[in-house]
Amino acid sequence: MEALRVEKLSKDFGGVRALNDVSLSVAAGERRAVIGANGAGKSTLINLINGEMPPTFGRVYILGKDVTGMPVYDRVHLGVGRSCQINSLFLHISVLDNVLLALQATQPFRFQMLRSISKYDHLSAKAQALLTARGLWEKRDVPVVDLSYGEQRRIEIVLSLASAPKLLLLDEPTAGLSASETSDIIELVRGLGRDISVLFISHDMDVIFSIADRITVLHYGQVIAEGTPKEIRANPKVKQIYLGYKEA
Amino acid sequence: MDFWVTIIVMGLSFSVLLFMLSSGLSLIFGLMNVLNLTHGGYYLIGSFVGISIYKWTGNFLLAILAGGAVAGIIGVGMERGFLRYLPGQLLDQVILTMGFLFIFTNLAKWIWGPIPQMATPPSLVAGSLRIGAYSVYLYHLVVIFAGLIIAIVLWFFQEKTRYGAIIRAGIDNREMIMAIGINFNQVCAWVFFLGTVIAGITGVIGLPLLGAYLESGSEILLYAIIVVIIGGLGSMQGALAGSFLIGIIHSFSKAFFPALAFFMMYLIVIIILLVRPSGLFGKRS
Amino acid sequence: MKSLELLFHKNRVSLGPYVGVGLILILLPLFLSPYLLYLAAKILIFAIFAMGLNLILGYTGLVSMGHAAFFGTAVYVGAFLTVHSGIENFWLVALLGVLAAVLMAALFGLFIVHLSGAYFLLITLGLSQLLFSIAWKWRALTGGDDGLPGIPRPDLGLPLPMGDDTYFYYFVFLIFVGCFFLLYRLTDSPFGHALVGIRENESRMKILGYNPWRYKYVSFIIGGGFGGVAGVLYAYLIGIAYPGDIGLMASVMVLFMVILGSPGTLACPLIGATLLTTMEYVVSIFTPERWPLILGAVFVLIAMYFRGGIGIYLIRYWRKLDLGHGSPKS
Q: Would the CB atoms of A110 and C323 count as touching at under 8 Å?
C-alpha cells in the first residue's frame, strides 16, 4: 500500500495558482524529497497533504484512504505527523509539557477530565525516551522560549514524531541549523524504521542526498522532474533551473 | 400610513447615528487591531459638552464643534498615552477601554448630575415637514440627509483618494504597508483622532433625538457592537449595511414589540454569524 | 516509576499554601462581625463564579464578556423557584438552577465558541446584555428593575439554621472547597493540559491531532456550570434576584476579578474576588458615588502596568509557582 498519493492537486489563492495539477506517489517506507525554488509550491503541497487547507482540485490519499475532505486533526489519527517550517511550539510552557501534549493527542485518554496527568506512566516514559534521544532531557523543565533556536527546532521535530506517525511530513527540518545540528537531524531520519514513510522539503543538498530515495522537483507549482537522486542530478531541465548545482 | 413613514424616518435617523459611531469603531479595529469599547464614551462626552454649549450660546453649530473637539482631544490622549502600548492585546484593551468608559460616565455624572437633558433642534431645522400626504420631523430628515452626504464623502475618500487606499491596504495587510515606507503610526493616530471626533459630533447631533443621558455611553456602544459584528470588523460597507439594518429593526421593534427589540437583533446577529462568521463584509481570517 | 513520579512533582501544583488559606477561611467566623462574615460568604461565592471564567478565559483562552449570563440565569431560576413556585428543598432548586445555567452555556456555546477573539468577546457581551434586557423588561416574570425579592435562606433538609450567618458561611465554604478541588482536578488532567495547549497555540494543537472546538465547547459549558453554582448560592445569600446580576456590569466585574487574580492560576479566583470585593467595600464607606470612577482608574492601572494581574506577585510571595499550568502574561 502506498503511504501517500496525490492526484492532480491544484490550489488557487485568489488569482494565483500556487499548485497546478500535481500528482505524486510515495511508496511505503520511502524517503521522498520535494525540492524547488522559493514559491514553487512546496509548502502549499505539504499543507494540502496535511489538511490545513482544502485543494481547489484534486484528491489526497493517505495510507490508501481518501482524506481529501478530512480536517487536519483527523488525519493525525490515520498516522500523519508534521513538522512546521517555522517553529510552532508552546513557548511559555516547559519542554516536557510540550512533548506530553504531543504524546497525549493520539491517546484515548486525551479527554480525561478528572485523573491527574501524572498517573499516566507510559506517557512520561515515552516523553523521556523521545527527549533523551535528542539530548534534551536535562532541559525538560525549561520554558521553550528560553531555549536556543537549534534546541527549539529539535523540539519541533520531536513533536512531529510523538504520534508515532506512519507518514512523516517534514517542512524544511534543518532550516537555520548549524552543521552539527543538521547532522543530528539527518541521523534521526536515517534512524527511522522503514515502517515510517517520510516526505520532506529541503533546500540543503547534503540533507537531500543523504536521506532521499527519490526526489520530486517543483517549479512554479508544477512537477517538472521526478526520480532518484542520481537521475535528478543528471536531469538537464533541473540543471537549467538550478544554476547553483555543481555538475555531477 | 403616516405611522409607517414615521417609523422608517426615525429608524433611518438612528441608522445615521449608528453609522457614524460604528464606522469609527470598526475601522479602528480593522486598521489598528484595537477594540475600543470607550467609543460610546466619546458619544457621551460629545452629547454633554454639546448640550451645555448649546444651552449657553444657543448656537448648535458651535456645540457640534465643541463636542467633536473635546471628544477628539480626549481620544488622542487615550490613544497616545495608553492604547498604543497595547497593540493586539485584546484582553488588556477591553479592560483599559472599559475603565475609561466608567471614568467618563462617572465624571459626567459628577459634573452634570444624573438627570437626563433634552434639547430641541435649532429653529432652522425644527418643526415638521409635509411631504405629500405625510408629516415628518424636519430634523430627522436633515440627519438622514447629512448621513447620506457623510457616507458618500467617506466612500469617495476610501475608494478614490490615496489616503483611503492606504487605509484599505493597512486593514488588509499591515506589514506590507509598513514595508513600503508609509508612516503607519501616523496614519493610525489620525484615523483614531477622526474616529473619536466623529463620535463626539454624533453625540451632539443625537441630542434632539435621544438627549444627553448617562447611560448613553454603554447603550449606544452596544448597538454599535451589534452593527459591527453584523457588518464585519474593519469594513465601512459593513458598518453602513449593519447600521441601516439595525436602525430600521430597532425602530420597528420599538413600535410593535418593545420588550423583544434587543432579542430580535441578537437573533439576527447569531443567524448572520452562523452563515458568515466574520460578518457580512468582514475580513475572512 | 518512582523517579517519574518525582519528575511530575515539580510540575504539579503544591497544595500546601492552599491548605493554609483554607485554614484561615475556616477560622474567619471567630473574629469577623456578622456583616463581614456575610461579605466573606459573598467573596467565596464570587470566587466560584470567577473559577468558571478562569477555566474559560485563563486556561482555554476564550475572552468572554458575558459570563454573568450563566450566573444570572441561575440566580433568577433560584429566585423564581423559591419565590413563585414555593419549592423549599435547596438541593432541587440548586440542581435546576445549575442545570439552567449549563443548558444556557450549551445552547449559546454551540453557536459562538468557534468564533475568533474579538467576535467571541463582542457576542458574549451581547448575550449578557440580551438576558439583561429580558430581565429588565419582562416584569411579569422577573419583576423588572424591582427584582424578585423574598428568597429565604436554603432548606438543606438538615437541622441546621441557615438563617444564621455563621452556618450559611460554612455551607458556602464547603461548596467553595468542593469547587476548588474540582477545578484543581480538571486543570491537572489531560483535558486541562489540552486547554492550555489550545490557549497557547491552537493551530499546533490541530496539527498534533486535537479537535479544539470540542475542548473549547466543553470548557465553556463547565465554566457556565460553575457560574450556575455561584448564582444559586448568591440568590440565597442576598435574598433577591436583580437584573444587574445578569448584565454587562456583572460580566465585567467577574472578568476583572479573573484578570486581577492572574488568569490561568488556581489561586486566581479567590485572590481576584477578595481584592475586588474588598476594594468596593472600602470605597463604599468613603465615596460610594465615585466607585465607578475609582474602579475605572484601577482598570486602567492594571491594564497598563500589571498586565498579568496581581495574583502572580502574591503567589511568588508564597514561593510556589504554577509552572506549566499556564502562564500569566509575564
A: no
